Amino acid sequence: MASPSRPTRVSSSLLLGLGFLIALIAFALQFYIRKYLRPRLWTVEELTLYNGTEVGLPILLGILGSVFDVTKGKTHYGPGGGYHHFAGRDASRAFVSGNFTGDGLTDSLHGLSTMEVKSVVDWRKFYMERYIFAGKLVGRYYDSQESHKIFERC
């Protein structure tokens, strides 16, 4: 007859092995995601896919052509969150205008005052300090060569 402690050892070993396997998968997934989100060039079309509605994909937002992974703030940037309108796009103007609909959700700063533009720059600094930089958005601020800033179309 088996001793009462034997099933406990098997259960403990099984749980330990399962825990190790889960930790290993999480560790591997972390490197996969970081490699996948290595800073790179993004198109507007690509960025729209990362708006928090697709389970398993990170949540990205753009500001002044810089793209950030804001997944750690998914309660704010995901569906139903107060800042969801920023996810999956560059809505630089809305950071200071407060217009979170239609024309307000644009990357254009045309017509903003110097102080408002400085405020948008400060918001970009906020994201640079608190979130993962995921790359640059090809368009108004960066061309397809990545390192060439485009200022004349701001």
TrEMBL record:
Q: Name one Pfam family in it.
A: Cyt-b5
Citing just one GO molecular function, the answer is:
steroid binding
Which ranges carry the Cytochrome b5 heme-binding domain? 42-138
Note the superkingdom of the native organism.
Eukaryota
Membrane-crossing residues?
12-33
Cross-referenced SUPFAM superfamilies, in alphabetical order?
Answer: Cytochrome b5-like heme/steroid binding domain (SSF55856)
Q: Which Gene3D superfamilies match?
A: Cytochrome b5-like heme/steroid binding domain (3.10.120.10)
Q: Which UniProt keywords apply?
A: Lipid-binding, Membrane, Steroid-binding, Transmembrane, Transmembrane helix
GO cellular component terms, A-Z: endomembrane system; membrane
Q: Which family does it belong to?
A: Belongs to the cytochrome b5 family. MAPR subfamily.
Report the protein name in the record.
Cytochrome b5-like Heme/Steroid binding domain
